[in-house]
Amino acid sequence: MKTSLSRPKTDIAFVLLAAGRSERFGSNKLLADFQGKPLWHWAAEAAENAGFEKLFLVCNPDSLLEPRKGWRRVINHDAGRGMGNSIAKGMSTCRHCSSAVVALADMPFVTAEHLQALIDSECIAFTEYGTEGMGCPAAFPQSAFSKLRRLDGDRGASALKWKGAVALAPREALMASDVDTVEQLEELQFVANEQTA
């Protein structure tokens, strides 16, 4: 079912990180089939259904991902340096936006409703991962962009010190699941099948 943001958010960027090398997976995990679609399409569709209009897909130079309609490909030539570098590259494309949501392309259970909640917080908001801390998807106002553009290496945005940041728990813990290995993908396929049975 398609949902939309509660009010127009044409000046909010959605930055989807898809520049990893999938080394633990053995092939490009983002192109792997998940419930009849390439894995990365699930997070992309959540952003589209939430009503984001400025959509950025951060890829490495060798990526075979074809951007969906309305998406702009952002090539990170230094993707091998780590996720922090990809966040910095993504944020460099949306410096004129009022705020941005950063998400990972290997999280198939992310929902439009959770993305909406992050934006509605109107502050720096991360997704709560229980005992594992907090991370993406995360929302940032423009005032945080310059700090994010200085990220490098494997450090994610949650590694920085943010005054007044909040962590929002997803409605279901499953939403925070990501895919690093073939086994994890198979486990999530099984869970998804059980939910639709």
UniProtKB/TrEMBL annotation:
The keyword S-adenosyl-L-methionine does not apply. It comes from the Bacteria. SUPFAM superfamilies: Nucleotide-diphospho-sugar transferases. Gene3D superfamilies: Spore Coat Polysaccharide Biosynthesis Protein SpsA, Chain A. InterPro entries: MobA-like_NTP_Trfase, Nucleotide-diphossugar_trans. Residues 15-160 form the MobA-like NTP transferase domain. Keywords: Magnesium, Nucleotidyltransferase, Transferase. The keyword Transferase applies. GO terms for molecular function: nucleotidyltransferase activity. Pfam families: NTP_transf_3. This is Molybdenum cofactor cytidylyltransferase.
